[in-house]
Amino acid sequence: MLFVFNENTDPYFNMAAEEYLVQNLSEEVFMIWRNHNTIVVGRNQNTLSEIHYEYVKEHGIQVVRRMSGGGAVFHDMGNVNFTFVVNSGDDFSNYKRFCEPVIGFLQTLGVTATLSGRNDILVDGKKISGNAQYMHRGRVMHHGTLLFNASGDRLSEALKVSEDKIKSKGIKSVRSRVTNISSHLKSPMSVENFVEKFADYMVKNIPDCRYYDIMQHEAEIQKLRDEKYATWEWNFGYSPKYELMRTKRFPAGSVEVYLDIAGTSEIKAVKIYGDFFSKLPVAALEQKLMGVRHEAEAISEALSGVNISEYIAGVTNEDFMTLLF
Question: Which of 35, 244, 316, 320 has a CA-to-CA distance to 28 between 20 and 30 Å?
Fold first, then answer.
């Protein structure tokens, strides 16, 4: 098995690296990697219903969709990720095979962990690892998280359940109580030291494990990153169809917006209600949003030159954008 120590912390590159390894190499692989401030959503999830959009935008948190299913997770540099790629389709859904070595490593640090349910690793009843899988032509990719000293505040805020009503056909995340591995160690340890010990343990305990430099494929992975994983179409546009209702009270009155979003993320129906006054018929404003992608830049462009206050008195264009997002 090849051992890859991936030092890149760009989430788009790392998602592309996983896909490249499973689809282009023939040998089995074990990889350790980390992402800088990122929300990773599952393959079948509605991105906007999983994230606290305003918080994510304000704090520069990146959002990326992965190839595997399951729920959304928050990554920062205190979270360590691991990936297995094996040539055994029979191991799809066999979470025990891939989690047991990780549990064995944690035991060497004096941390007693257990596999719970199908795909979580727990310590003292709290989650320290979530796992998911993807299969391509008989090759199974299994990847998981290890919360070492991740920011709990950022995790909860970035994935905060919105008060807005979003009816999505996508898979919803199940929020669990989580804890950091560092809180259960007998002696303090840096995340870098943890990664080093993890790598050393896995290399020694995986038969015929040898180092492999993934950067020899940097150009191909970067191309996949740029053309797929760093695109709005993949990370947001791929979301299943959904309905969105948002209500906001402004000094001039309350405004309700109902959007029906197609699987392509285009607005296929829109209705605006409220106790506001208007100079021009609000139906004309609704028409301007029809067929527009539900994305801030696209809507801003569609409303360029439009004075929202003529349709919703007392509401600026900026106000209206905060209502939609």
Answer: 35
Q: Which two tokens stand for residue 80?
A: 């360590």
Mean pLDDT, the chain, integer: 90
- Locate 64 and state its tokens: 């990326």
User: What letter does residue 162 receive in the DSSP assignment?
Assistant: P
pLDDT reported for residue 170: 58
Cα-flanking dihedrals φ and ψ of residue 63, to 5°? -125, 130
Q: In the structure encoding, which two tokens stand for residue 67, read together?
A: 């190839």
Q: Which two tokens stand for residue 89?
A: 């389709």
- CA dist 111 and 124 (Å) reads 10
3-class SS letters over 239-272: CCCEEEEEEEEECCEEEEEEEEECCCCEEEEEEE
| Confidence at 274, pLDDT banded by 50, 70, 90 | confident
Spatial separation of the C-alpha atoms in residues 321 and 162, rounded to whole Å:
17
Segment 155-181, tens digit of pLDDT = 778 886 544 545 555 556 555 688 999
Expressed in angstroms, the distance from the first to the final Cα of the chain is 46
* Closest among 180, 72, 193, 167 to 127, alpha carbons compared: 180
d(CA 64, CA 40): 5
Q: How far apart are CA 84 and CA 133, in angstroms?
A: 9
Q: Is 91 exposed, middle or buried (0-12, 13-18, 19+ CB in 10 A)?
A: middle
